[in-house]
Amino acid sequence: MWCFVFFGEQFSESHNYVLTEPSTAVDAEWQILPALPWEGDLNELDVNDAVLRVTQSCRVLPHPDLRKRERERDSRRARAAAMTGVGAEDDIPLCERKTVTDFCYLLDKSKQLFNGLRDLPQYGHKQWQSYFGRTFDVYTKLWKFQQQHRQVLDNRYGLKRWQIGEVASKIGQLYYHYYLRTSETSYLNEAFSFYSAIRQRSYYHQVNKEDRPELVVKKLRYYARFIVVCLLLNKMDLVKVLVKELSEEIEDYTQRFNTEDQLEWNLVLQEVAAFVEADPLMILNDDNGVVVISNRLQEGGVPSLEQGMVVGQLTLADALIVGNCNNQVKFSELTIDMFRMLQALEREPVNLATQSSKPGTLEPNEKPAKRENPHKYLLYKPTFSQLYTFLSASFKELPANSVLLVYLSATGVFPNGRSECEGPYDFGGVLTNTNRDVVNGEMVQKRNQAQKEMHCLHPGDLFPFTRKPLFIIVDSSNSTAYKNFSNLFGQPLVCLLSPTAYPKSMQDQCQRGSLFTLFLYNPLMGFLSVCGLSSMRYGLWDKAQELLRKVFHDIGQMITSSRVIDQAYLQFYGDEFLRLLMIRFVFCCTTLRLHKLFREARSFPESYPPLPKQELVESSLLQKHVLELAAMLDVQNLFSDGMLDNY
């Protein structure tokens, strides 16, 4: 059975989650939620204020199968009472017995709700928020209760220090998954606050002294979760420290315990190490320290709309980010291309530069008035049926005057031969996962060459969704299959298509991410990558970025002033995310057409509808800008002085 997993926490509905297969090493913790401890030095992590703000306006709904769950709860409460001696006829005062019993009830309730998150409906906006609010509320009550009765719980329940790390970790996971569901990046800061406190206060320090491998696994899972949050917040210096600590913990774990998951944990370590090294560029300050650059949308980071520009009022509401590239760097079922596109569709987290003085809280003036990021589904190697299901759900729930974006980073599927009548299913497409589509336990195979590839998303498969505004990005070796689109319903439709082949000198870099997606994620980094530059000073980087801002402003004016450009581009131009993607795409087109290594037509990006060449991608002004940037970086010898005549 396939479900939605993130290192053990499974969720069946989200607007920004990872679709993946469970892994033995890191995904088996659903059945374990230890007792919450009472340690007092986590008072600074004031869960109450932060959580209560999340639960405001959340209507509490009864969980399905409640009677069965309550019977299980009563059974577990009885076992807990037996273990602690509360049920025995001894000298324990009645009020202290009641305290432990009430604590067990809240503890069990929190476990039920946390585990119940995976049982939520797969789609829809209604029920998950109420259930999340209910879960946050129970954790708030549990936290306040253990603070008020810590002495009794210490004496009668025997709580340990590592257990408080567990409750902080669970709250961090709740915030992380709330971010996944809402795409509100400020909740990443909340998750970071709790994960960071666990490490700073060494709550898991004593775990290694106990002869219990399951406790060590909890610690390893905590490290893996913390690393993912740090990656998303671009805290790369801390990521490198955490990777080193995780490596030491895994080595100690494998030496002490002869477990079956040793190879899987080593694979986790290898994946995160490769993920950290995937960036093709190091930016150095005057002291040769590495400067970390954020690639999320920042204030003033996109050319503004100017008076007289006639553009549409559409808003990007939903995005499907699909990754199915073989041998591409990944971590936590997130390929490097998916990771980059995810950040390209988000604004900078609130208060990222200066963390709140009180960890674990979200001050009222920090919380945005509205959610400004599009909802996102992150689908790692989905089958066709899974991908189509999420497409249908997004299409159904898309608000009025909104856009659905589909990003496909996948291996190309090519047609067997040329048909007599070429249609939307005769050009191939991109690969979907073949490992999960089975009939009677066996793989389904094509019967003859005349049949189409069933494990492929053909351009025709997307035709039904063109009834609403649709923005498609295809990064694949067969991306050009999607230029054979037909706009049947007259709604705005744009396809940005990657090159289908790269120069041989750049093909070995594909494992570290696609050059095309890199341009859409960080155009200057893409420019430096095609120039073979792997490091540069921050001062020069800043000057180059200033020049790019001018270039992007000019590209924006060219798009909005063109009399021959397809109106779909203007309809999408009103949204900041889509505007920036289109501008970066034009910059990528002009750069690659001028680069001497890119000589073949298949090495250039394409689009549907086609962009006007003379007015845009071959514009003399843009060529001048590209050559000016090359001269600034002292790589002008890599570029032609004029545009190629034929491509």
TrEMBL record:
- Bias (Basic and acidic residues) occurs at 364-373
Q: What keyword terms does UniProt attach to this protein?
A: Coiled coil
**Which spans of this chain does the record mark as coiled coil?**
236-263
Note the superkingdom of the native organism: Eukaryota
Asked if Coiled coil is a keyword of the record, the answer is: yes
Q: Which InterPro entries match?
A: SCAI
What is the protein name given in its UniProt record?
A: Suppressor of cancer cell invasion
Instruction: Recite the lineage of the species.
Output: Eukaryota, Metazoa, Chordata, Craniata, Vertebrata
